[in-house]
Amino acid sequence: MGVDELHDPEGLLARQAARESSARSYARHLPVVPVRAEGMLVHGADGRTYLDCLSGAGSLALGHNHPVVVEAVRKVLDAGAPMHVLDLATPIKDEFTETLLGLLPGELARDARMHFCGPSGADAVEAAIKLARIATGRSGLVAFTGAYHGMTAAALAATGNVSARTPARVPDAGVTRLPFPQDYRCPYGIGGIAGERIAVEHVRRLFDDPGSGMTPPAAVIVEPVQGEGGVIPAPDGWLRSLSALAAAYDMPMIADEVQTGLGRTGELWGVDHAGVVPDMMVLSKAIGGGLPLAVIVYRAKYDVWQEGAHTGTFRGHQLAMAAGTATMRFVAEHSLAEQSRKLGDKLRSEFEEAMAELPAIGDVRGRGLMIGLDLVDAGSAADVLGARPAAPGLARRVRAEALRRGLIVELGGRHGAVLRLLPPLTMTELEAEQVRDLVLDSIAAASAGWRS
């Protein structure tokens, strides 16, 4: 096969469709063949350049091929350091550990243990749930509707998306799934502080009721902002109450910070908005600098592993640790969490202003540079909270229109009708303006003549 054939986008996409499994997802809806990238720009084999608001599902905090990440990886290679060391101690690993501990909430960092897992966030979730069950001697788990924690057994059981669980016949494994409070589509039909209070009382009464049917829980696992679930921030007061309840009932609270961690939400960690210090934090994506790496950090009292209790061949990826160290330091030294907050606030404000002219935008929400636009059927009647029916068909049209205009975005939410933006934290104000205009133009174009 010649070079021209290898870079022919139509041929490459056709070969991918013929050879890869039907489980592929992004490739179905984003027929782009990336051949080069820097920062927020992706250059395709078709000669087009795209603005990337997917960022490797949020793993590229500094965008593509950031100089400090490239230099860190090159330094490891040039030094002849081992790339794969299982769980052996190395200077590179020690530097990563020291850097991460220096950025964690102080109360957790002072009493922390760290476990390197297999290189995916799902494996880290699996490890955290397993450790909580061993430490408490209980088997249940409290999770939330709309949650997404991964595709391995325990992680998938904790995930709220039934379509993701059912085909694999994944057992719920004692999972009690509770409503996740929100304003726009409040599960209690109230919204606001009243909805949060009911959610807290709901949890409390389940814990106190011996007839609730709840398997005694080993832990409660929560995302500070639900990502795949539709970019829904956990209300600060509710998260604080949830943390207090977990402590009162002697169970660890696990914060799944796989997507929210390292400045994405406008704070270094998603839980920082509520001032909560979890008992366990699940970390992946951005902490590897775009390379595969996952860890759990937890209070020392839970360090009850037996030797080899949760292992993984690739838990000693030196290139990922070097890239992660460089990324963490750059985020901290350049105040990218603050920049994420400012740019995110500005973008959400501008999207909210556009709602008057674009009624297909039902809600704008998120934190920092984790932004969601809930797309709705503007011609339908609203419910008591003012929320109109989700419009997944329209959302797919918007995604396609955005790609046609050179913008890569993805969808999420309960009905796949939330336009999700996860740009790199290094996005400039000019790039943010371009993203805003492309998103609004795409929604306007897709809405023209559309009916659900």
From TrEMBL:
**Species of the source:** Actinospica acidithermotolerans
Molecular function via GO: diaminobutyrate-2-oxoglutarate transaminase activity; pyridoxal phosphate binding
Pathway note: Amine and polyamine biosynthesis; ectoine biosynthesis; L-ectoine from L-aspartate 4-semialdehyde: step 1/3
- Give the family from UniProt: Belongs to the class-III pyridoxal-phosphate-dependent aminotransferase family.
- EC class (word): transferase
List each coiled-coil range: none
PROSITE patterns per the UniProt record, alphabetical: AA_TRANSFER_CLASS_3 (PS00600)
State what protein this is by name: Diaminobutyrate--2-oxoglutarate transaminase
Which keywords fit this entry according to its UniProt record?
Answer: Aminotransferase, Pyridoxal phosphate, Transferase
Gene3D superfamilies of this UniProt entry? Aspartate Aminotransferase, domain 1, Type I PLP-dependent aspartate aminotransferase-like (Major domain)
Cofactor section: pyridoxal 5'-phosphate
InterPro entries linked to this entry: Aminotrans_3 (IPR005814), Aminotrans_3_PPA_site (IPR049704), Dat (IPR004637), PyrdxlP-dep_Trfase (IPR015424), PyrdxlP-dep_Trfase_major (IPR015421), PyrdxlP-dep_Trfase_small (IPR015422)
| Enzyme Commission code(s) on record | 2.6.1.76
